[in-house]
């Protein structure tokens, strides 16, 4: 069946979309980028209308995906789950994922590298915990293994994590210090033997700093 486009009107609330009128009545809205080739008085059939609406759905999904990754990098599985939750069909979701991947906007290899790099520098945790986090995000094991190749050994990571946390324990007794730091490092996925290795070094460093600070005060 054929229809005539009788009007194309910009939406007031969304300047990126237009309302399409067929045979004198409102029919649907489209993204401007999808409707660029349409003209008033143009005649189109049902098959073309379906293609237009499918293209519009893909454009909506793409814009939703761009917004989703604007806050922080996302894995491909996270993006897929978000679009499916938004109600897009599996075909639209897959084509959107491919489009994002081809544009370099997503990709689990780069995502894994960035995730691990950020964690190591800002919130150190064990290699086991890093791998577990990426697995929960649906990343393939091959990408996880590759990303972990550049990660320091767990003892170095535990020292970094422990030093950050120990700043709030400077007034604690040795017993309280050990108890709280052990619990913190265990929650970060470090093994018991690694924790036992780093606690004395961190305790000693804190006491050296405190001793130096007391010396400066007395000299002043």
Spatial sequence of strands, sheet with the most strands: 3-2-1-4
Radius of gyration over all CA atoms, rounded: 28 Å
Tally the beta strands.
Answer: 4
CATH first level of the domain at 2-73: which class? Mainly Alpha
Q: Helical content, roughly?
A: 55-70%
| Biggest β-sheet strands, sense, barrel | 4 strands, antiparallel
List unreliable stretches of 5+ residues: 212-220
Q: Element order, helices and strands?
A: EEEHEHHHHHHHHH
The CA-CA distance between the termini, in Å, is 93 Å
| Shape label | elongated
CATH topology descriptor of the domain at 2-73: Arc Repressor Mutant, subunit A
Strand share of the residues? 5-15%
Number of helices: 10
What features would you describe in this structure?
The protein is 63% helix and 11% strand. With 220 residues, the protein is an alpha+beta fold. Among the domains are: 72 residues, Winged helix-like DNA-binding domain superfamily/Winged helix DNA-binding domain (Arc Repressor Mutant, subunit A), CATH 1.10.10; 67 residues. Strands 3-2-1-4 form a 4-stranded antiparallel sheet. A hairpin with a 6-residue loop joins β1 and β2. α3 runs antiparallel to α4, α6 runs antiparallel to α7 and α8 packs across α9. The radius of gyration is 28 Å and the shape is elongated.
């Amino acid at each position: 069946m054929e229809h005539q486009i009788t009007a194309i009107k910009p939406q007031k609330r969304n300047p990126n979309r237009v309302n399409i009128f067929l045979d004198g009545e409102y029919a649907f809205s489209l993204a401007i980028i999808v409707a660029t080739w349409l003209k008033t008085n143009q005649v189109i059939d049902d098959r073309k209308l379906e293609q237009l609406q499918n293209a519009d759905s893909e454009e909506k999904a793409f814009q939703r995906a761009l917004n989703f990754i604007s806050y922080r990098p996302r894995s491909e599985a996270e993006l897929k789950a978000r679009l499916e939750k938004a109600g897009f069909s599996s075909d639209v979701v897959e084509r959107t994922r491919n489009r994002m991947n081809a544009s370099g906007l997503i990709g689990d290899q780069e995502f894994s590298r960035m995730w691990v790099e950020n964690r190591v520098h800002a919130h150190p945790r064990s290699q086991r915990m890093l791998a577990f986090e990426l697995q929960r995000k649906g990343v393939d094991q091959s990408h996880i293994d590759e990303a972990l190749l550049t990660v320091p050994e767990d003892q170095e990571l535990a020292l970094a994590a422990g030093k950050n946390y120990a700043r709030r324990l400077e007034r604690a007794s040795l017993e309280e210090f050990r108890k709280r730091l052990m619990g913190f490092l265990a929650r970060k996925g470090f093994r018991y033997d690694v924790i036992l290795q780093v606690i004395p070094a961190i305790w000693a460093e804190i006491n050296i700093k405190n001793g130096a600070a007391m010396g400066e005060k007395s000299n002043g």
